[in-house]
Specification:
By secondary structure, the protein is of the alpha/beta class. It has a six-stranded mixed beta sheet with strand order 17-18-16-15-19-20, with helices on both faces. Strands 5-4-1-6-7 form a five-stranded parallel beta sheet. Helix 20 (441-448) links the parallel strand 10 (429-435) and strand 11 (456-462). Helix 11 (236-247) packs across helix 23 (535-560), helix 22 crosses helix 23 (535-560) and helix 31 packs across helix 32 (702-712).
Length: 786
């Protein structure tokens, strides 16, 4: 929108729903679900209607009303009253249901600030702006809804609604009527903006209008489609937040994969989480907030930004803590066998040498242990030899144990002094901690630390948690997992916890890892090690963080300027779903960008593996002998020390590996699945370019093919549509539009047939045309059509 110059046009018309106005609840189905819930609470929807049936019944009676109008009058336009006149009386009073739906619309509608600004620019330029809507809400009522969203009549000259005129944008007659009323001499000086590919783009373009397709930006659209494959439909406010964040121009024009990962995927859920922390602090009168480093620096910025917006005074300071840093200060006795077993089980790559470094033991172990020092402890647990027990005995021996305990006391003194300085000077009281999650082990160590856990009451906020958190719930501190502890959240959190690296890297940036505590000039300070990765990695994570902050700023602006948006809460399940999708079914471009990033495991081993590399690929390929459907499950069982992010590695090997894993358990054939299978078939035949033959224009599967073909390495040389009247321009998604006569003139001899219902008919037309011209050719379509 920012590139459009209103002065270039005599008339600008703008679509209303999903262009100028958005619903914070999501689509119209979500609106009807809200109406049902409210109607049942108020007794408007009767108990006779089965629970959850409102939306489906509402959709069916609307179709029936439109069919009846068409049979009676030759058009399909109806009003809300016409629709509810067909509502069965035993399920609720029709008049009350009309009022209920309008009240629900009023509760959830917000104005799109970017389109509002465009309308304002039209007014400032002295250009006429009209609003057009294919809608069952009459104009007088829709005007009231627009007013309620801050879109007053000063921003537009006319509102034209299809149900008021028995004519629609989709059938073209509404545009004809507007042209007559507006007295336009040249339609190429008329600009129409809207989201519907047919009603707002193809139809007006055929009538000579200039059009702008106000669609979801390409990268976010790919993300949403992948989420839908997983059964996720991130509706509600989260959907609106992401789409608006995608609309605002990136700083310095930076719209790379890293930036988009931040603004489309990680930023909006994180903003919702941090907002929940601020609201909790405001509700309970808490002031001290301590986000855990390394993520704490970014989380602090998000929390402080939201606190300022809400007028909540917080003292937010990132707290340098980690399991490694707190290990030595937490030691109450010399390490024994149970301690070593725990060390072995929490990290299967940990060795005796790692343990010696973690407890800062400077006495060399007996020569007999030398062969075992670099072997993983977990492997020694089942070894019939005495190495494991001999090592435990060595750590328990007098001089060794005394040295470890002395250094533990020193470390504890430094840790407690540092923590007091950050948490309030030792005065005690309530402290809110903030962390991504999942087991709460660092929080538990902090709570057990003498001089800290007995002086402060912690309110531990985690984005997500896993089953082990239940072991901490009775430790005297408060635990507040944002995503909840129900089974569905725990299962998805377990997947994220298994491979959180891409998320954590985005939050950590180029910050060092906290490894312990010491003294500098008499002041207790955290000890740190340098961050993983080099300059290129730093640029990527900085771009990602920029995207996260960008999303948070856009969301704050939206909710700050709209009471409806401010009151619309984000579902924690929806927020968790977004991060789950990123880990479980990443897009190929996300993986390609992230695979080479190095991750500091922060486990005391000083290891910095790549998120995916040749060794990871080898680990996956060793599973080739099992059934393909079982590979994702088995890969998840490979220890992270050997395979950090299984889903990413499988995607690098086969970009559709995780897609297939979900397609096998999803009923029905999705458009994306159909397109992917056709592209795979084409690649198996050695095709790298083809003429695409489909049906339905933007309303069919063609757009998905154009989106997915470049990823598959296939170029589209031309486009033929069975319904030629749906295509009003010479190019369709950048490919030349061909009619039947032009099919036989193309140099490309490969023709891809893309249609579920018309494949055989399209193939027959193409085949006959090419045979009549004596052209050799190849028709490529899925076997189900042959």
């Amino acid at each position: 929108m920012r590139h459009l110059a209103p002065a270039d046009y005599d008339l600008v018309t703008v679509d209303v729903f999903d262009t100028l106005l958005f619903r914070t609840c999501g689509d119209v189905g979500a609106l009807h679900a809200l109406a049902e819930a409210s109607g049942r609470d108020r007794g408007i929807v009767t108990p006779a209607l089965p629970a959850g049936a409102f939306a489906a019944l509402r959709g069916r009676i609307e179709r029936e009303a439109r069919d009846a109008a068409n049979a009676r009058s030759g058009h399909r336009e109806v009003t809300l009253e016409d629709i509810y006149a067909r509502w069965p009386a035993e399920f609720g009073d029709p008049g009350a249901l009309v009022a209920l739906e309008l009240a629900t619309e009023r509760r959830v509608l917000v104005a799109n600030p970017y389109v509002v600004n465009f309308l304002r620019a039209c007014c400032d330029a002295g250009r006429r702006a009209w609003l057009l809507s294919d809608c069952y809400i009459p104009g007088v009522l829709l005007t009231s809804l627009l007013d309620g969203c801050g879109v007053g009549c000063d921003l537009y000259e006319r509102l034209v609604v299809s149900c008021d005129h028995d004519a629609s944008k989709e059938d073209g007659r509404l545009f004809e009527m507007v042209a007559a009323e507006a007295g336009l001499d040249r339609r190429d000086h008329w600009l129409h903006v809207g989201d519907n590919a047919l009603a707002d783009v193809s139809v007006p373009a055929r009538q000579g209008l200039r059009t702008v397709h106000y669609r979801t930006p390409h990268r976010l659209e790919r993300v949403e489609r992948r989420e839908a494959l997983l059964g996720q439909h991130s509706g509600g406010p989260l959907r609106l937040w992401r789409r608006l964040a995608a609309r605002r121009e990136a700083p310095d024009g930076d719209a790379g994969i890293g930036f988009d990962l931040g603004r489309h995927v990680i930023g909006p859920p994180l903003h919702a989480f941090c907002g929940s922390v601020v609201r909790y602090c405001a509700e309970y009168g808490l002031r001290r907030v301590a986000p855990f480093q390394r993520e704490g620096a970014l989380l602090s910025r998000l929390i402080e930004h939201e606190a300022r917006r809400l007028g909540c005074a917080l003292d937010t300071r990132p707290l340098h803590v980690s399991r490694e840093a707190l290990l030595l200060p937490s030691l109450a006795g010399a390490p024994d066998r149970d301690f070593l077993v725990g060390m072995a089980r929490t990290n299967t790559g940990r060795t005796m040498r790692d343990v010696l470094r973690l407890v800062r033991c400077d006495i060399a172990p007996p020569a007999g242990l030398e062969p075992w020092l670099d072997r993983p402890l977990i492997g020694l647990l089942g070894d019939p030899g005495p190495a494991f027990d001999r090592f435990a005995a060595f750590l328990q021996s007098g001089e060794v144990a005394d040295g470890i305990l002395h250094r533990a006391a020193e470390a504890r003194a430094a840790a407690v002094a540092y923590l007091h300085g950050e948490l309030g000077g030792g005065e005690g009281g309530d402290v809110v901690t903030v962390d991504l999650g999942a087991r709460g082990s660092t929080q538990a160590m902090l709570g057990r630390l003498p001089g800290i856990g007995d002086r402060y009451r912690f309110h531990h906020h985690l984005f997500y948690a896993v089953d082990q958190l239940f072991e901490r719930l009775t430790d005297g501190h408060r635990w507040l997992p944002f995503a909840g502890l129900h089974r569905g959240a725990l299962d998805r959190a377990a997947v994220i916890y298994r491979s959180p690296q891409i998320i954590e890297l985005a939050l950590v940036g180029g910050l060092p890892t906290t490894t312990g505590y010491g003294w500098r000039d008499g002041v207790a300070k955290p000890l740190t090690s340098p961050p993983a990765g080099g300059a290129e990695q730093l640029r990527w994570v900085e771009a990602c963080q920029s995207g996260i902050l960008h999303a948070s700023e856009v969301i704050s602006d939206l909710v700050g300027g709209s009471a409806v948006a401010a009151g619309a809460g984000v579902s924690p399940d929806a927020a968790l779903d977004v991060l789950f999708r990123l880990v479980q079914a990443p897009l190929p471009e996300e993986v390609e960008q992230a695979a080479g990033l190095r991750y500091d495991l922060n486990d005391g081993l000083r290891s910095e593996p790549c998120l995916s590399d040749a060794a990871a690929a080898a680990a996956i390929r060793r599973l080739d002998t099992v059934h393909p459907a079982s590979i994702p499950t088995l890969a998840m069982q490979i220890p992270p020390a050997r395979l950090l992010w299984p889903q990413a590695t499988m995607t690098l090997i086969d970009e559709n590996a995780m897609v297939r894993a979900y397609e096998t358990v999803t009923p029905g054939l999705r458009h994306d699945t159909y397109v992917r299978l056709l592209l795979e078939h084409m690649r198996s035949q050695g095709v790298d370019r083809a003429i695409l033959c489909a049906a339905g224009g933007d309303g069919g599967m063609g757009p998905a093919f154009f989106d997915m073909a470049p990823v598959a390495g296939i170029a589209v040389e031309g486009y033929f549509d069975l319904f030629a009247d749906r295509i009003a321009t010479p190019l369709f998604h950048g490919a030349p539009v061909l009619d039947e006569d032009l099919l036989a003139t193309q140099r490309c001899a490969d023709f891809a047939i893309l249609s579920l219902g018309y494949a055989e008919r399209i193939a027959d037309i193409v085949g006959r045309r090419l045979q009549a011209a004596g052209r050799s050719h190849r028709i490529l379509m899925l076997p189900m059509h042959q």
